[in-house]
Amino acid sequence: MSVNTQKAALRKHLLEKRDATSAELREISSEKIHQNLKKISAYTNSQNIACYFPIGSEINTNDIMLDILGQNKNLLLPRITNDNLQFFVVSNLEKLEKGNFEIMEPKDSCKKAEKIDCVLIPTVGVSKSGVRLGYGKGYYDRFLSLIDAVKISLTYSKQIVKSIPNEPHDVKIDWIVTEDENVKIS
Question: Would you say 79 and 106 are in contact if contact means Cβ atoms under 8 Å apart?
């Protein structure tokens, strides 16, 4: 079985599992993840923080985004441009509009991020060795391969798996933050 076929099967299984979680439990877990994230100095000491606007059953990052803005740090959110992920400085959440895949993204008036210290990454699944499973389009892997920033995967504990089939272009993450623990990848 090819790596892509294995990834697709695992992705389907993990998304079904995540989607089956009640909205109430997802909200409680998202708040715990936010609190655990604040325990990582690589995050708290960052000034330019790339985040993502949540869709579906992803970790709700709204409080994280508001917290970043409330601390007068630069909130950077992605927009897909020419099939690549680019991050833009967002001064408030009213600077967003529906974009590709019906995801809220920065308006054209937002300026492109010049520096990124830390990236919070949406995650379908992750292994404790730092291999992340995304949605399969490769946007984050392409983007992460070009920058030198702390990479933090936000995910539910049940999305951590023993192993994920990986390929040379897959970029490993530095931290996994769940509702139960923070895992530093060595």
Answer: yes
The runs of H, that is alpha helices, within 20-120 are 23-37, 41-44, 62-70
Find out whether 48 and 107 touch, Cβ atoms under 8 Å.
no
How far is residue 83 from each of residues 80, 86, 91, 100, 137, measured CA to CA in Å? Answer: 6, 10, 24, 10, 10
> Could you give the C-alpha distances from 107 to 53, 77, 90, 91, 95, in angstroms and in order?
13, 10, 9, 11, 6
pLDDT in tens, 49-95: 999 999 999 999 999 999 999 999 999 999 988 888 999 999 998 88
pLDDT in tens, 135-183: 988 899 999 999 999 999 999 999 999 999 988 888 999 999 999 999 9
Q: Give, in order, the Cα–Cα distances in Å from 10 to each of 14, 30, 68, 129, 134.
A: 6, 23, 33, 17, 11
> Which residues make beta-bridge pairs with 120?
152
Q: Give the count of beta carbons closer than 10 Å to the beta carbon of residue 83.
A: 10
Residue 98's SS3 state is strand
pTM (2 d.p.): 0.94
- Nearest Cα to 113, choosing from 98, 91, 135? 91
- Which are the contacts of 84, defined by CB distance < 8 A and separation ≥ 6? 139, 142, 143
The pLDDT > 90 percentage for the chain reads 82
